[in-house]
Specification:
Number of helices: 9
Structural class: alpha/beta
Strand order of the largest sheet: 1-2-4-3-5-8-6-7
Distance between the termini: 33 Å
Largest sheet: 8 strands, mixed
Shape: globular
Radius of gyration: 21 Å
Number of strands: 8
Strand content: 15-25%
Helix content: 40-55%
Oligomer: single chain
């Protein structure tokens, strides 16, 4: 009888430990869902209307969808409206304000170049930002920074590198808050992967990086290097998708080809998380940039890495539990 009790207690303790491990994983490790990414993409990409600067009605439709969807996660959003050539354009800004002294910004542009669907460029980044919003909302009480999620308009030509880029407008609007901003993370094309030797690089860099296109890249300038290091460390801890860092000045081709350039210009640390765009994806800015070419499982891993560094306290709690 005594032995039976002893074994019963052992079994009970085993079951409790299994339950605790499962609970810890489900509550402490954010998990992006590829099905959610697929649903977002289906709403962002219209089969016949293209979200370029000429088609303001389609841009407004997408902006309204983004605002409504993120608000359903319990995050308040607003439009940042500005005029270009007597036409209104809008960023969508969503804020998780938890009363902290510092904040981080996470952004992605939702417009496209030309009459193209722009699945990788940049519906992938927008879908990733939406899933990031969902994960952060679910863990908002554990955030140690306020978070500003920004969906930009007018990143693409003819307004690229102009004051009319949505990210340029946003960067100017937060200059008075510079001291409060820890970092900016830009999601720019995060859905195209290929294990074959398809990867190109700016001149000279191919000697130091893989030939295959099966990794995510974290691009920073020197002053932002700590944040690309943190991101790749998180990705390496997940052990699902390789992460490569590039720390380079903006004159290296492609290094500043997205919204982070406007934060660099404002002296705010920023990194770009990317599948390297046209250096890998030869469907860039063509009609062949379509959803079926995206790898949603790997996109989800990209977002998991981002969520982990934004929820650093979750990671630390998980490590403490693992060590105890």
């Amino acid at each position: 009888m005594l032995m039976q009790r002893f074994y019963s207690i052992l079994i009970l303790l085993f079951l409790m430990s299994c339950h605790s491990a499962i609970y810890a994983k489900s509550t402490l490790e954010p998990q992006a869902d590829p099905k959610n990414l697929s649903n977002y993409l289906a709403q962002i990409i219209h089969p016949t209307a293209f979200r370029n600067y000429k088609n303001v009605a389609e841009l407004d439709r997408v902006a309204a969808y983004l605002k409504q969807q993120v608000e359903q996660f319990g995050i308040p959003c607003e439009y940042q409206i500005y005029q270009v050539q007597q036409q209104n354009y809008r960023n969508v800004i969503c804020r998780l304000n938890m009363g902290h002294a510092k904040k981080v910004i996470v952004g992605a542009h939702y417009d496209v170049y030309g009459d193209f669907k722009g699945a990788d460029d940049n519906a992938s980044g927008v879908a990733g930002l939406m899933e990031t919003a969902r994960l952060l909302a679910a863990h908002k009480n554990q955030l140690k920074h306020n978070v500003e999620l920004v969906f930009y308009t007018l990143e693409e030509p003819p307004y690229f590198r102009s004051a009319y880029m949505g990210s340029a407008v946003h960067a100017q609007s937060i200059l008075a808050q510079k001291a409060q901003i820890e970092a900016v993370y830009i999601l720019e094309m995060i859905g195209f992967f290929n294990a074959q030797a398809v990867q190109d690089y700016p001149t000279g860099l191919g000697l130091f990086y893989p030939e295959h296109g099966d990794y995510i890249a974290a691009v920073s300038n020197f002053s932002s290097r700590i944040f690309s290091e943190k991101y790749c460390k998180a990705m390496n801890n997940i052990k699902k998708l390789d992460c490569q860092r590039l720390i380079a000045p903006s004159f290296i081709q492609g290094v500043d080809f997205s919204d982070h350039l406007n934060y660099w210009n404002a002296g705010i640390p920023a990194i770009m998380i990317t599948d390297t765009a046209f250096f890998r994806n030869k469907h860039y800015h063509t009609a062949q940039d379509t959803v079926e070419k995206l790898n949603l499982d790997k996109m989800a891993q990209v977002i998991n890495g981002l969520a982990i560094i934004l929820l650093e306290n979750i990671n630390r709690d998980h490590n403490k539990k693992a060590q105890s």
